[in-house]
Write a structure and sequence with these properties.
The chain contains 18 helices and no strands. It is mainly α. The relative contact order is 0.17.
Length: 417
């Protein structure tokens, strides 16, 4: 039987379509524009890549500090949508503001603001999965979110790319083109959020009892204690920290990496567009396959594929190599994100989804601090960007070993129930 999304599930998926446009910009036009600002200031390619990585790491640290606490607050009745809206609003505002900046240091500062808002919104968006669908539908719904997010993000991206590359033909300057590109992306993100905000109702929650923030800290403390007792969840988070750290480092630094080794900007952007297009059917194919194959098996295959991709990056030095890398990443990127999200949602208490996804986010969406720092430091120390990126293979190898152990623990727990 063909899988059909409910009305609420569709609105939840639609937000993935919106925020993915921002992700696409961060992976493509943002670093290219920052590179032009940095180049004008006399900053070298290696340092440019390093500064971009450091800025991403700062975003990670901010979200890591705020995420679990805000997640605990969001689990209080009627708070999840409010905090989600504020986070999303900060990201949208920051995205618009970026187009008006011409100083590389100010651009990095506002980028940190926008990326932090974006990453924070995803904590509560992911936590909404337990409210908008049922456990047996989570793998498919989560996969549809990433799949339509990838293909949907191409619409504003193509429009922005046309404006930026065709600025001269349109009779506008580069600065004006960038302003329009950032505004289009922000409005697309905002518009896709409205249906979910209008229809979402928090299904699982903790009752407000006295001081919301104080009680949230207490619940968070109990959650950390509970987490140490739920070994299968704890080990999964460790595994997730390592392998998804590598995945998001690839996403965050792909364009910067390509430019730093001298690839043409237009060809680079088209290659990353191909990644989005390849990801769309790949995620949907895996979402159908997960009905016949255990999600643990598919996640294992994806981690293994990323390990091979990172090793291959050591020899990458031609446009063809980068195009091949872009296609390979597209085949596994969405699936590893989607199934990790739904897998985690199924092994945690639904009424504590905000708290747990706050912890999950430290290890996930914005938590590429080790990966970006590793690439940045090794690139500067060795003078070789290839060595920096290929070092991510270690992250995937550790993540693979830990994930297989966590899957074994989860199986044992199910057998005991």
């Amino acid at each position: 039987m063909k899988f059909k999304l409910t009305s609420l599930e569709k609105k939840w998926v639609l937000y993935d379509v919106g925020n993915s446009a921002f992700t696409m910009m961060v992976s493509t036009i943002f670093p290219i524009y920052f590179n032009s600002l940095a180049e004008s200031a006399g900053i070298s390619d290696v340092n440019y890549l390093a500064y971009w990585g450091y800025a991403t790491s700062v975003c990670t640290l901010i979200v890591a500090l705020l995420g679990p606490t805000l997640g605990a607050v969001a689990d209080t009745k009627n708070f999840k949508k409010i905090i989600f809206s504020v986070s999303m609003g900060i990201g949208v505002f920051g995205c618009i503001l970026l187009g008006f900046l011409s100083s590389w240091i100010w651009f990095l500062g506002v980028f940190v603001l926008a990326k932090t808002g974006y990453s924070a919104s995803l904590i509560f968006y992911d936590a909404m999965l337990t409210d908008v669908t049922e456990p047996d539908r989570m793998d498919s719904v989560s996969s549809h979110g990433y799949a339509w997010g990838y293909i949907g993000s191409c619409i504003p991206f193509v429009a922005c790319l046309g404006i930026v590359l065709g600025a001269g033909t349109l009779g506008i300057g580069t600065q004006t083109a960038m302003i329009l590109a950032f505004i289009i992306t922000a409005l697309w993100w905002l518009a896709s959020s409205v249906p979910l905000l209008r229809s979402y109702r928090q299904k699982y929650f903790s009752e407000a009892d006295g001081h919301v923030v104080r009680n949230s800290f207490r619940r968070l403390g109990r959650t950390f204690v509970e987490l140490t007792k739920q070994k299968h969840v704890f080990v999964f988070l460790l595994a997730f920290f390592f392998y998804i750290d590598g995945v998001y480092t690839v996403i965050d630094m792909a364009t910067a990496y390509g430019q730093a080794i001298g690839l043409d900007s237009t060809g680079l952007l088209l290659a990353l567009l191909v990644t989005q297009i390849v990801a769309f059917p790949s995620v949907l194919i895996f979402s159908r396959l997960v009905k016949k194959v255990r999600p643990e098996t598919i996640i294992t295959v994806c981690i293994g594929a990323y390990f091979c991709i990172a090793v291959y990056a050591y020899w990458l030095d031609t446009p063809f190599d980068f195009w091949l890398l872009a296609i390979l990443v597209g085949m596994f990127q969405g699936t590893i994100q989607a199934l990790s999200r739904s897998y985690f949602a199924k092994i945690i208490p639904a009424e504590k989804s905000g708290e747990f996804f706050g912890i999950y986010d430290i290890c996930g969406k914005g938590a590429s601090v080790i990966g970006t720092a590793l690439v940045s430091v090794l690139s500067q120390v060795t003078g070789s960007i290839n060595i920096g990126v290929s070092a991510l293979s270690v992250m995937f190898l550790i993540g693979l070993v830990l994930f297989r152990y966590s899957a074994k623990l989860n199986t044992q727990k199910k057998c005991q129930q």
